[in-house]
Amino acid sequence: MIKRILTGDRPTGPLHLGHYVGSLANRVRLQDEYDTFILIADVQALTDNFEHPELLGENVMEVATDYLAVGLDPNKVKIVVQSMVPELCELTIYFMNLVTTATLERNPTLKEEIKQRNFTNGLPVGFYTYPISQASDITIFKAELVPVGEDQLPMIEQTREIVRRFNRLYKKILIEPRAMTGQVARLPGTDGGAKMSKSLRNCINLGDTPDQVRKRVMSMYTDPTRIHPTDPGHIEGNPVFTYHDAFNPNKGEVADLKERYVAGTVGDVEVKEKLFAALNAFLEPIRVRRAEFASKPERVREIVVEGTRKGRAVAQETMREVREAMKLAYPL
Ligand code: ATP
Ligand code: MG
């Protein structure tokens, strides 16, 4: 049987460069080799957007269009909308018995995200338990491989623990997945923050216009210790160079810029101009394909409906096995 991939994104905004290097590039590269399911995780996104559910609906089609724009082939991958697969909720409830609150409390990504979100009316149980719901997403599709950014590694570890417990307690039917991070496991934000993130507004989006990209690049965080172009600069922890490494195919140019930056013989403006040119060249074909699909929303809708239908069929089959393994398949 051909091995499966499951991964996904929250429809909290358009996809950005971090998604590309962290996960999308691997999805595109592996789509011929793996039976690929990609989840638009609107149920997960609700856990911290439940007061504005309309925002998610608006982004479902945007995210699907981004997938097609980066080269995911609708004849190969299934794009699945999470809320349209209610079996996922059922599996989450069963999995909740297999996880302790102490384990959730130790999850470093969850801890960090709770801090960032600064929930004013207390921590919603839905958000607190999203790693369990994510374990359902992965296992219901019997995925072996999960291409994700580094922030998601604790979620995959949590999933593996749940699968081991389930298989030991009930019956060995679930697959222990493995994570695969991208060429850059965690792309920093344009503000120099640890992670480019839709919710943090420190992104360059895949669909941004050249003007938007230029503005973002020119106002990027660089080396705060460098006041004049003649000051020796730091490469380490400088997101402008992280982006050059990730997106500028001209390695000679990047090496030269680094050398001159450290020596204090190049200004930030030149480094950023060259980054802008490289990013723009990278984004142009994505923009062209994006515009093509954006002009055919009916076609995108069909792709999502079809992907969701196929995804749901797999989920229903797994749930039949799960109920049987858990002795819930009563003759009623
Ligand atoms: P939100 O702020 O709403 O959580 P996000 O920008 O973190 O949005 P997600 O939809 O949560 O995006 O993440 C989707 C996938 O993209 C995950 O696998 C995640 O690890 C990966 N990813 C997101 N941001 C980055 C990044 N900056 N670097 C590498 N991978 C990333
Ligand atoms: Mg996220």
Description:
The strands form 2 sheets. Strands 1-2-3 form a 3-stranded parallel sheet. Strands 4-5 form a two-stranded parallel sheet. Helix 3 (53-69) crosses helix 13, helix 4 (87-96) packs across helix 8 and helix 4 crosses helix 14 (297-325). The protein has helices spanning 17-30, 42-46, 53-69, 87-96, 101-106, 108-117, 125-128, 130-140, 153-169, 210-218, 239-247, 251-263, 268-294, 297-325, and strands at 4-9, 35-40, 77-81, 145-147, 178-180. The mean pLDDT is 97. The chain has 2 domains: 4-187 and 297-325, 3-Layer(aba) Sandwich (Rossmann fold), CATH 3.40.50; 210-290, Tyrosyl-Transfer RNA Synthetase (Orthogonal Bundle), CATH 1.10.240.10. The protein is globular and about 80 Å long. The chain has 14 helices and 5 strands. Strand 4, helix 9 (153-169) and strand 5 (178-180) form a beta-alpha-beta unit. It has 332 residues and is mainly α. Bound molecules: adenosine-5'-triphosphate and magnesium ion. Adenosine-5'-triphosphate (ATP) binds next to helix 1.
Which regions have little confidence, pLDDT < 50, spanning 5+ residues?
none
Find the structural class using helix and strand composition: mainly alpha
> Can you summarize the main beta sheet?
3 strands, parallel
CATH architecture of the largest domain: 3-Layer(aba) Sandwich
The rounded distance between the terminal residues' Cα atoms is 32 Å
Question: Care to count the β-strands?
Answer: 5
- Strand-residue proportion: 5-15%
Total number of distinct structural domains = 2
Tell me the series of helices and strands, N- to C-terminal: EHEHHEHHHHHEHEHHHHH
CATH topology-level fold name of the largest domain? Rossmann fold
Major sheet: arrangement of strands: 1-2-3
Spatial shape: globular
Provide the CATH top-level class of the largest domain.
Alpha Beta
